[in-house]
Design brief:
Length: about 375
């Protein structure tokens, strides 16, 4: 079985982490599966695949979203590697694959992974590509994502939910430095952490509003916020807001850091303020390290966090409620212990990469078999 994963994303995020986890799990436990990753040349994802050294990766130029060089690389790779199935991992890659198949008509069947809860835009060209004939299944990372997708997919039988899993074998608490040491955070100060690139979906404005609420309104000073993630053109807006509220002493933005999840073990509380999510793997990673989670109630998050049972949830943008939850955790160690125990057990039983990979491989086999019979 020859599988081609295609990513049109230049940076590194949860989607690229999912590709890595799926690739490694299939590589280790299913030798009959030959995998290749077609990625954006000179992007962060390409760089990481190159550094890790154990991936069959193929870089392709992508200067614009419909770069014909990338399209031609898809066609050439499918032919030379005798690809049986193309697994598409983002909207840009989907556009490029549809163009490639429209040129040749000979590409193998597609599987598309929908990893966000953004609605599919109601545009003719967008609806065409998401309903393209070569897409045999659309893997949704949560039931919420599947529900959103069903509004735009003509054949709903193509939709299936397979939860992302995390790897347990590569989890470590070892980091290049300790947050408390590097950023001079005293031992009696609570660390509230966030991991995510500076993109619209992560809603870091609310993250800063929470800091303002706790520091300036509720006068809690023994608390420090650490945000780990790649800077973008939105970053300056966040710095300006921090300066406006005079919060410089209470928050650190580190920028991108390799193996960011290892720093989770140094947080006292993990805070997620997103306005849109599919099912963020970072929450399950926090569960692994037994770090309590406060999050917004979006996408598939309520499928893994039950408010008041194994974490706290609040509506999008509700900085006061998010602050209430953090204060409740600060003052109730018994509550935290109950949350992290339930969350960790849930993770270990249901959200491993083994479960994810086995479900995905079963799907691959059924599509390849059916496609072969129809040919």
């Amino acid at each position: 079985m020859n599988i081609l994963h295609i990513s049109g994303v230049k940076n590194w995020g949860g989607g690229e982490n999912h590709i890595e986890n799926l690739y490694v799990e299939l590589q280790v436990n299913h030798l009959e599966v030959n995998q290749h990753v077609l990625c954006v040349k000179h992007g962060k994802f390409h760089q990481i695949l190159k550094e890790k050294g154990n991936f069959n990766y193929i870089p392709a130029s992508l200067a614009i979203k419909m770069d014909l060089r990338f399209v031609l690389k898809i066609i050439k790779t499918c032919r030379l590697k005798k690809i049986d199935l193309v697994h598409i991992h983002d909207p840009t890659a989907l556009t490029l694959c549809v163009i490639a198949d429209r040129i040749t008509g000979t590409l193998p069947p597609f599987v598309y992974s929908k990893k966000t809860s953004f609605p599919i835009k109601n545009r003719k060209s967008t609806l065409f590509k998401y309903n393209y004939k070569k897409i045999k299944k659309i893997i949704c990372v949560s039931n919420a994502t599947e529900k959103v997708a069903s509004q735009s997919i003509e054949d709903e039988s193509k939709l299936i939910t397979i939860y992302n899993g995390i790897r347990f074998d590569n989890k470590t608490k070892e980091t290049a430095f300790k947050l408390r040491d590097k950023y001079s955070i005293s031992s009696d100060t609570l660390i509230v952490g966030h991991i995510g690139n500076h993109i619209r979906a992560k809603n870091l404005v609310t993250f800063i509003e929470v800091i303002n609420e706790l520091i300036n309104v509720r006068k809690i000073k023994k608390i420090h916020f650490v945000q780990i993630g790649m800077f973008t053109d939105r970053t300056q807006t966040y710095f300006d807001l921090i300066e406006k509220y005079s919060l410089e002493k209470f928050v650190t933005f580190t920028g991108f850091m390799d193996n960011a999840s290892a720093f989770l073990s140094q947080f006292d509380i993990f805070l997620l303020t997103s306005q849109s999510e599919g099912l963020p793997q970072v929450i399950n990673e926090a569960f692994y390290f037994k770090i309590p989670v406060v999050s917004t109630n979006v996408g598939g998050i309520p499928e893994i966090i039950k408010n008041g049972e194994n974490g706290f949830l609040a509506d999008v943008g509700d900085s006061k409620k998010l602050s209430d939850h953090i204060i409740n955790m600060m003052s109730d160690e018994k509550l935290i212990n109950g949350f992290v125990k339930k969350s960790h057990n849930q993770l270990m039983e249901n959200f491993s990469t083994v479960n994810m990979a086995e479900s995905t491989l079963k799907l691959y086999k059924s599509i390849i078999k059916l496609y072969g019979l129809r040919k």
